[in-house]
Amino acid sequence: MGRKGGTILYLDGVSVSFDGFRAINNLSLVLDRGEMRAIIGPNGAGKTTMMDIVTGKTRPDAGEVFFDGSVDLTRHDEADIATMGIGRKFQKPTVFEGHTVEDNLVLSLKGPRSIFPALFHRRSAEENRRIDEILAVTRLETKRSDMAASLSHGQKQWLEIGMLLAQDPKLLLVDEPVAGMTDAETAETARLLKDIARTHSVIVVEHDMHFVRELGVKVTCLHEGSVLSEGSLDHVSSDPRVIEVYLGR
Ligand SMILES: Nc1ncnc2c1ncn2[C@@H]1O[C@H](COP(=O)(O)OP(=O)(O)O)[C@@H](O)[C@H]1O
Ligand SMILES: [Mg+2]
């Protein structure tokens, strides 16, 4: 482990501009190994851009970005970073609609494979164990043989989280997971993510304050590309600056 060994993700003094506009402005954020963090903030605060920087989609103009101790993420591209153990879930689910739930997970298992051998080779006991475990954590055990197309919007989101887990990431980045979900699905998603966070580091970006409260984790509020406030949800949501730019609207 390097000098940042106690943390899974370390950003310090990170900035990035698009055509002269500073989307991320001297951002510093530290995520402990095994921590789940909720990120909130108004539209345009830089939440998605922060994830773009961590996943190598966007290169910062300045600052340090370290993963898992001493891995300098600014020196790696998106494919490398995914392989190193950072999984990202975008807002819109991208499951394979014409395959079963189980096959979606099999196709996502770690390791180089093309679709034919992935679906038709004899699976190892270890692969079967992993699939069963992921079906359980994503609340999809009874759906394993159903086509992904038949799932509800919320279940598709869970399947996609399962597909990320199949890649065996150390850190999961989840952008607005409960957008468009029913209240019941939203509450179940909070429980599901808490289950996942027992064995993974997780960053969740979300606007739904009720959901953030259910998560019960430390919150970071971003504004204009920097940290505006950080701490418990009660601390952050009573911070006058947060009320001014975000919650008070
Ligand atoms: N690739 C890009 N090119 C130009 N501007 C961008 C790009 N990505 C993000 N931005 C701008 O950066 C700001 C932050 O955007 P974003 O990270 O998507 O905010 P959030 O996810 O918090 O709503 C916005 O003003 C957005 O328009
Ligand atoms: Mg966003």
Widest sheet: strand order? 6-7-8-3-9-10
For this entry, what is the oligomeric state of its chains? single chain
For the largest beta-sheet, the strand count, sense and barrel status come to: 6 strands, mixed
Strand elements, count: 10
- What's the order of the H and E elements? EEEHEEHEHHHHEHEHEEHH
Determine the mean pLDDT. Answer: 92
The hetero molecules present are:
adenosine-5'-diphosphate, magnesium ion
Taking the alpha carbons of the first and last residues, their distance comes to 44 Å
Fraction of helical residues: 25-40%
Low-pLDDT sequence parts: 1-5
User: How large is the radius of gyration?
Assistant: 18 Å
Which term fits the overall shape?
globular
- Strand percentage, roughly? 15-25%
Number of helices: 10
Structural class: alpha/beta
